[in-house]
Amino acid sequence: MTGSADTKRYLTGGRLIDGTGDAPQPLHWMELSGERITDIEAGEGPGRPLPPGAVIAFDAAGKTVMPGLIDAHCHISYGVARGIEEQDLFGSAEYRSIRAMYHAQTVLQAGVTSCSDPGGGWYVAVAVRDAVKAGLFPGPRISAAARYLSTHAALTDYFPSWVGSPRSGVGVLTESASHMVNEVREQIKNGVDFIKIAASGESATLTPGGGSVPAFRAEELKVIVDEAHRLGRRVTAHARSGQSVEDCVDAGIDWIMHADFMDRRQADKLAASGIPCCPTLTFVANVAQWGHIAGCSQGRLDRFRRDLDLAVTNLDYAWRNGVQMMCGTDTGFAVTPYGEWHARELELFVDLLGMSPLQAITCATRNAAVTVDAANLGTLQKGRLADFLVVDGDPLADIRILQDKTRFSAIFQGGRPVDLTPQKPIHRWPWERSLQISERELYQSTVTQALAHP
To answer: How far is CA 223 from CA 170, 235, 250, 274, 372, in A?
Structure first.
């Protein structure tokens, strides 16, 4: 490929899935200039010919051309954490930032050209976003939050009070409305794209009778949302319980994470509001279905299996009755490593929620673009940023091929091909590990039994 950054270049051939939800159609050519798509010729029939002397960027004949995936829930600072100690206690801000840049390239090479990071340690995601924008390292386009606004009843306040809330943790404890407002102002001053609220706990099944207790009063959520909106930033929330979803809707939040334990009345209210939802089934499904391979405890396996069954029932009703769904994976944990499972959410939407592959792709492109930059991303249309995949195969026939990185003939970001040379693996350093000595107790009886039955 030759010419300056402004030279018109052309992708030719293939079948186009444009991300709008429309049926695929033959692609004659797509014109690229700078970072953007400046023209498209697609449809049945011969179409307009290429201009004389056209510079061919890529010949996609026999392949599928589709928008780059957008992971609406990717924690770039977590570092493949195996537990909360790794996530919150170990690793400096400086090390986490450098490690996150490595992982950002891995995410991009998995076909994720944009992602939304809904919270993490310090301002790591903000730093990675800016480094990618500056061209220092390859990575997806990132919209970044900072530490979750939390309370003692919320997701991120993991440790007992005598341990305290670590500065390096992913949540910041907000103890009053004035503190909440000040935290919003400080995070915006430091460059976040949006505010993340931990509006509920981890799982409805942890609370007797079901339904995790909302972490904030409804009026507190409104204080946070109003202040962020006043300052020109959006707000999302981790909200598993139905009541926390309802409170977030009333507060005017911009999108919801999870919402897997809402009842039908609450789902109908979410649908009527037009607020989109990112279920992130991948994290739950990976533990429920394969957690035993990663060494998850039996108790966690049992709980996640119950959670997944309930989530599928509730979310199936929600999307069929008007809730707009987005694909996100909760990537960043040991059960959802970077570059591995970003397209699995599409498979789960198809297999568990009954979507068609085309509907699932729309959830991972146009719909998910809401969390990053809906005006410029998510669809392949004239004037949009030229972020797209050239896939060897038909994801409408088998949605799982998007999880196979060898099927990406090319990944383009901003009209330029991404280097797909695999990165060298990195080592896990001692300070990333929890200080766990064993997984279970060592009793005399268990030793005697083990020796008798080796």
So the answer is: 21, 12, 12, 21, 24
Torsion, Cα 309 312 315 321, to 10 degrees, reads -120
Six-digit token string for 55: 């510079």
Query: Do 240 and 204 contact (CB within 8 A), yes or no?
Result: yes
> Identity (one letter) of the amino acid at 329?
T
What totals of helices (H) and strands (E) does the chain contain, helices first? 12, 18
List for the chain the helix, strand, coil content (%; round to 5). 35, 20, 45
- Give the amino acid at 146: A
Interval 127-139: pLDDT, tens: 999 999 999 999 9
Going by DSSP bridges, is the β-strand pair 15-16/194-198 parallel, antiparallel, or unpaired? unpaired
Distance (Å, rounded) from C-alpha 89 to C-alpha 322?
41
**pLDDT tens string 312-353:** 999 999 999 999 999 999 999 889 999 999 999 999 999 999
Which two tokens mark 122? 């310090």
Q: Are 174 and 183 in contact (CB under 8 A)?
A: yes
What are the two backbone dihedrals, phi and then psi, of residue 59, each rounded to the nearest 5 degrees? -100, 110
The pLDDT tens digits of the residues spanning 216-234 come to 999 999 999 999 999 999 9
